[in-house]
């Protein structure tokens, strides 16, 4: 008997870290990703790094997306990547968006942030890039065996 | 970290990353990895599964977050499975329940997992049922399952939980629709949430009446309880947690636990079978599309055509 193939959707955590008080941008992104067929776990505002990492691990997401509007993206990226590593989840790719200036993109990448989306990036492009990132990762994903 | 046996061992030792990965494997349950669930279930059957159902907006997620705190104060380990209702096969979903429970995210004794209802029947997906088995073995004492009670799904939760908590709120409880939908026939515990609102007293009176009436038609000595809460203000939570525990004692002492476990696992098997059938059916329909297209032009012989499809589906499954 053949077994049905269940194609798992790409699961993304959308989070905002720190005191930054509005989440319009994060909600817009969450909705757009849902419409593109993603499973979006939305954790809301004012998350700590520890909360983001705990949620990513429990939900076993394929990608963590951080939406950031205050100027602390370096600090957040460094702490987040470090905490992920410590928690045995260093393989979960992190992407960032919000209002990050162009000059900061390369340094963030060098730190290990998988992708940075500049303000005004078309949603279709974000979707395409996330799909690429997720599929790269699926090669590494554990396969069940009998 | 790819061998499921290793994941199981690590998860048992409290490694949440391993448990998270394991749950994903169970989400993708198939003939090749069914052994994982077999292995887990052979050790399970101990945990208390609490189903929480009610209309969207009744306050389920907010209340669950409060309940988690209450159960933690009683030193239980708590898992929450939140089933996202709004995901038709063709599109994605936003899982927002977690947002209301994030304060517990970093508590070592709490594990929260969202799943979409890609299941075909009812509100509780196959994935959720498989996850219950895993949490059970991993030592979670209370496994809380959040489902939206609409249509068929609230009868579905009957097959899943040891204790069924039905949530209502002022203005909704005395609704004829809810009565018709049968939500008020399945609860072990009824909760009137948002009791901070002025019209709550009336709804509470009504729910007492419903519970009273309903107790008559039931076997067993458990009388459905009615509890007033305000998840927003944190009122009535302790009483609710204690009532839920009292029901579990009843379930254990009456031998009901065994029966409910069998019902839950039977439902799991049913969902696996349903998925296989539907999978086969879609494949056959795809292959026969042209022929069916011709038949339906004048609908002559459509019923026989449907029967032919059924036979092909069966044949395909057996092959
Ligand atoms: N006034 C009042 N509002 C509540 C209470 N519990 C939940 N809410 C609000 O009701 C809305 C829906 O809550 P949620 O927990 O998401 O409901 P769910 O859809 O049943 O999970 C939110 O805005 C909550 O803040 C309560 O006890 N009193
Ligand atoms: Mg909810």
Feature tags:
heterodimer, A: 146 residues, alpha/beta, Rossmann fold, five-stranded parallel β-sheet, 5 helices, 16% strand, globular, disordered N terminus, disordered C terminus, B: 319 residues, 3 domains, seven-stranded parallel β-sheet, 12 helices, 14% strand, binds guanosine-5'-diphosphate, binds magnesium ion
Short summary:
Chain A is of the alpha/beta class. Chain A is 41% helix and 16% strand.
Task: Please describe what this structure looks like.
The complex is a heterodimer of chains A (146) and B (319). With 146 residues, chain A is α/β, with parallel strands linked by helices. Chain A has one domain (11-136): Cobalamin-binding domain (Rossmann fold). Chain A has helices spanning 24-35, 49-59, 73-86, 105-111, 123-138, and strands spanning 11-15, 39-42, 63-68, 94-98, 115-117. A five-stranded parallel sheet of chain A has the order 2-1-3-4-5, sandwiched between helices. In chain A, helix 2 packs across helix 3 (73-86). The longest helix of chain A has 16 residues, at 123-138. By secondary structure, chain B is of the alpha/beta class. Chain B folds into three domains: 1-42, no CATH class; 44-254, P-loop containing nucleotide triphosphate hydrolases (Rossmann fold); 268-318, no CATH class. Chain B contains twelve helices and eight strands. A seven-stranded parallel sheet of chain B has the order 4-2-5-1-6-7-8, with helices on both faces. In chain B, helix 4 packs across helix 9 (237-253). Chain A binds chain B through residues 1-6, 8-9, 30-31, 33-44, 47-48, 50-51, 54-55, 57-60, 87-89, 141-146, and chain B through 1-4, 7, 15-17, 19-21, 23-25, 27-33, 35-36, 87, 90-96, 98-99, 102, 105-106, 111-114, 116, 118, 275-276, 279, 317-319.
């Amino acid at each position: 008997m053949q077994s049905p193939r269940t194609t798992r959707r790409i699961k993304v955590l959308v989070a905002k870290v720190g005191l930054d008080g509005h989440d319009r941008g994060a909600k817009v992104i969450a909705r757009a990703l849902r419409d593109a067929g993603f499973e979006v776990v939305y954790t809301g505002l004012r998350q700590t790094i520890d909360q983001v990492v705990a949620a990513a691990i429990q939900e076993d997401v394929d990608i963590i997306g951080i939406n950031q509007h205050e100027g602390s993206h370096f600090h957040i990226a460094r702490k987040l990547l470090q905490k992920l590593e410590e928690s045995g989840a260093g393989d979960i790719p992190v992407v960032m968006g919000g209002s990050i200036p162009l000059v900061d993109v390369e340094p963030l990448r060098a730190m290990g942030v998988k992708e940075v989306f500049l303000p005004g990036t078309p949603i279709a492009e974000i979707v395409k890039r996330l799909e690429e990132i997720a599929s790269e990762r699926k090669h590494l994903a554990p396969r069940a065996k009998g | 970290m790819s061998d499921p046996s290793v994941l199981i061992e690590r998860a048992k030792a409290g490694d949440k990353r391993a448990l998270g990965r394991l749950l994903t494997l169970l989400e993708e349950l198939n003939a090749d990895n069914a052994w994982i669930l077999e292995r887990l279930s052979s050790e399970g059957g101990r945990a208390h599964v609490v189903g929480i159902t009610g209309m969207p907006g009744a306050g389920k997620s907010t209340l669950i977050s409060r309940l988690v705190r209450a159960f933690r104060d009683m030193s239980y380990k708590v898992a929450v499975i939140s089933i996202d209702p709004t995901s038709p096969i063709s599109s994605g979903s936003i899982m927002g329940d977690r947002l209301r429970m994030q304060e517990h995210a970093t508590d070592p004794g709490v594990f929260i997992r969202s799943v979409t209802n890609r299941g075909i029947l009812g509100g509780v997906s196959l994935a959720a049922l498989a996850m219950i088995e895993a949490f059970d073995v991993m030592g979670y004492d209370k496994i809380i399952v959040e489902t939206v009670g609409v249509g068929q799904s609230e009868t579905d939760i009957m097959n899943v939980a040891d204790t069924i908590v039905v949530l209502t709120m002022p203005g909704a409880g005395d609704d004829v629709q809810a009565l018709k939908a049968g939500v008020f026939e399945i609860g072990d515990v009824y909760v009137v949430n948002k009791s901070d609102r002025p019209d709550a007293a009336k709804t509470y009176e009504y729910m007492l009446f419903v519970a009273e009436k309903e107790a008559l038609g039931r076997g067993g000595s458990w009388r459905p309880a009615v509890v007033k809460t305000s998840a927003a203000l944190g009122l009535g939570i302790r009483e609710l947690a204690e009532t839920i525990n009292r029901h579990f004692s009843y379930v254990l002492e009456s031998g009901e636990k065994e029966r409910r476990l069998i019902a839950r696992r039977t439902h799991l098997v049913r969902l696996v079978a349903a998925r296989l059938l539907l999978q086969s059916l879609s494949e056959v329909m795809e292959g026969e599309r042209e022929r069916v297209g011709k038949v339906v032009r004048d609908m002559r012989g459509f019923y026989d055509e449907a029967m032919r499809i059924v036979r092909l589906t069966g044949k395909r499954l057996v092959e």
